[in-house]
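If your schedule permits, I should be very grateful for your opinion on a structural question. Thank you for your consideration; the sequence and its tokens are set out here:

===
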Amino acid sequence: SSVSVARYCARQLSNICSVLAVSNGKVLFKREASGENCR
């Protein structure tokens, strides 16, 4: 599912990346970037 893929990506990517999964206009998963490089 989209949520599973988003969670996998969130684990694999560093914290300076935001991860967002959207389906039919609804946000299913969201992780905001953190750290000094976050904008």
Q: What stands out?
A: Strands lie at 19-23, 26-31.
